[in-house]
Amino acid sequence: MSEPLRILALEPYYGGSHRAVLDGLVRHIDAEWTLLTLPARKWKWRMRGAAINMAIEAQALAAAAGGGAAPFDLLFCSTFLNLAEWRGLVGPGLSAIPSIVYFHENQLLYPNRHTAEWDLQFPLTNVTTALSADRCVFNSRYNLEGFVEQIPGFIREFPDHHPTGLAEVIAGKSDILAPPFCAAAFDAVEVTREDRCRIVWPHRWEHDKNPEEFFAAVTALAEEGLDFEVVVAGQAFRETQDLMRDAATALGSRLHRCAEPASREEYAHLLASADVAVSTARNEFFGLAMVEACYAGCRPLVPERLAYPELYEERFRYEGCDGLIASLRDLIVARPAAGEARAFAERYTFSELAPAYEELFARVARG
Questions:
Q1: What are the structural domain ranges in the chain?
Q2: What pLDDT is attached to residue 334?
Q3: Are 334 and 326 in contact, with CB atoms under 8 Å apart?
Q4: In sequence order, which residues have a C-beta less than 8 Å from that of residue 40 and are 6 or more positions away?
Q5: Which residues are paired to 349 by β-bridges?
Q6: Around Cβ 168, how many Cβ atoms within 10 Å?
Q7: Which CATH fold would you assign to the domain 184-346?
Q8: I want to staple 71 with a disulfide (CB 3.0 to 4.6 A). Which of 19, 65, 168, 279 is the partner?
């Protein structure tokens, strides 16, 4: 029997889906894992500076291991790490470790609210990271194709000396592999249904998830006199939580909850109690929260954009705010059966996807 791979995982933004996927891989992939992480805050500073901190930490690990050979067989990181900088800083032994970068998202497609010249640093970090990696893995075709299609135009933003062929190089060493989720918390709860239709919005409280469109839709339906209730259950941030709560409070008695769940178990109970899960995102490269809601028994309602057409059947998609209102109205009046999209979500559990990750890790480590 071959020895387990020794995997060094670098995650500068250890929170949300980044943390959930990495923690799940550690639990489900038989390997000797070493994790270097930073808290999930100030993402721009993570992209700027994490390589320095993590190079110092990795050098300390290598020194403690002793000997001349690198103490790892594989490096696994997300795009919040500037991999090119990290490899330049750690020295020849560690920099030679075969590497995989996982693209949960990419900055070339990110919808900036305020574009400034310094914003170009972040997509450039994505490009140099992809170029320095041995393998790039994207969570959806939308993510991969959008990234490589945007590279030539982005390179033309350089004032001169425009390198060519970068998109082709990156595309040639890229795979698509969905992010798995852990189903245990959802398997431990029973699907329940309240007296009236419950609509859940299970996303981060940030502008790219477009909460304004969601609240506009449910407020319009409330003004029609329809009887339903709303749960807002995503990750809260200090900068946006007051605005979110003000918008939600306007729903009055139709607001059942507007708070970040205290635990994975509480989150599972909330999803299992809802009839419909809604996304209004302007930026989504896969959408683990919606997949988890499907697994928990919700009927999904997603926009006709981003990664959603690649993943969801047409009957689960809507176009524009008017389409969202019309679809929600129908679902409130004729409540959907629980578990309509469960089979769709089951393909993304760790039990289903772990073998594909094991094969990927072994292939890249072997070179």
A1: 5-180+350-366, 184-346
A2: 95
A3: no
A4: 13, 14, 15, 16, 18, 19
A5: 181
A6: 11
A7: Rossmann fold (3.40.50)
A8: 65
